[in-house]
Amino acid sequence: MAALISRLPRLESRNLALVGTSIATTLALVAITRYAFHTIPPKTIPSPRTVVLSTLSKEEQDALPYPPDVFPGARDVASPYGVFRAYEFGPEHGRKVLLIHGISTPCLSLGGIANALVSKGCRVLLLDLWGRGYSDSVDLPHDARLYTSQILLAITSSPLSWTPEGFSIIGYSLGGGIAADFASSFPGLVKGLVLLAPSGLVRTKHFGWQGRLLYSGLLPASLLEALVRRRLGGASSNASSVKQDDLEKAVQEEVMGNSSQGFDSTFLNKDRPGVTVGGATDWQLANHEGFVRSFVSSIRFASIEYVQGRWRNLGRLSEKVIIMAGDTDPIIIADELHKDSKEEIGADKVEFKVIGGGHEFPIARPDEVVEEIVRIWGI
């Protein structure tokens, strides 16, 4: 052994110093990289309500793509989690309807439906989900528990009582999955349920392995959020080596809409004809520091994928569940949703309707959607 060791090349002290320096530098770079990608996020990231509005005059606020008073009855609801924005308006004695928007847009996206319902005599309540619009982003899993608590906070913050006679919920996209989760847990509180291109029953085949890897939790949060921000911002597919799957195509359609169906000119508020969903969503991405974090958390933890038995309790609701799907939606496939929802809820408890358009149809065709709803509700 001694003879073998004696044959090994000897390192001079100078070379030893170089090797030591190289090792130390490598370890330092690894440590710095881990620190950069694994920093502890703040518990609450304030919304533009705090960060942006405080620096603007009333005239400048009115000119924003998402004006803070775009609907009547605005209120900021304080909670142990943070502060979120809600709007409540319409006849006080009308049918009470809570509207829950999709994963990428603020509640402004359901303005067309809200205004149409008010014209039919309904009282509506819209809220910006955590991390969207003027609601703070919270450092908790964005799952059914968090969203259920937000709904309860919203209705209990109302000057009117929403619980004795029950209220109705309309949920769009992710909001549909959230609405179904809430109604399943509190069937006695929910009078009517309307699900528009809802998540919650999306079949497994629509989720590619690349997307599963992306949102698996293996990537550092800051790196994942940077990738998602580039995608939502309209970067080319070369921005990431992970192929876009059906879920992301649906999200993109929700954000961008279909110009041939008048998405950008959709009538959201009669007093603000220049306010569009696309403009508000772009502004949100640029000005809400917590939006991407909440978006990613919703993808990971909210009710999106089909889990057998998840909607079974909806058959206990007093009214039929109204479900609508777009005939060209890339992920909420009308035939699949029709079959799966009736198997889960019960064929006699579902009223199903196919609407012309893609995933954006509740935004682009609100009057048609509302006419169908009020016909079934009998108002």
From TrEMBL:
<dbReference type="InterPro" id="IPR050266">
    <property type="entry name" value="AB_hydrolase_sf"/>
</dbReference>
<dbReference type="GO" id="GO:0016787">
    <property type="term" value="F:hydrolase activity"/>
</dbReference>
<dbReference type="Pfam" id="PF12697">
    <property type="entry name" value="Abhydrolase_6"/>
</dbReference>
<keyword id="KW-0378">Hydrolase</keyword>
<dbReference type="InterPro" id="IPR029058">
    <property type="entry name" value="AB_hydrolase_fold"/>
</dbReference>
<protein>
    <submittedName>
        <fullName>Serine hydrolase-like protein</fullName>
    </submittedName>
</protein>
<feature type="domain" description="AB hydrolase-1">
    <location>
        <begin position="97"/>
        <end position="371"/>
    </location>
</feature>
<dbReference type="GO" id="GO:0016020">
    <property type="term" value="C:membrane"/>
</dbReference>
<dbReference type="InterPro" id="IPR000073">
    <property type="entry name" value="AB_hydrolase_1"/>
</dbReference>
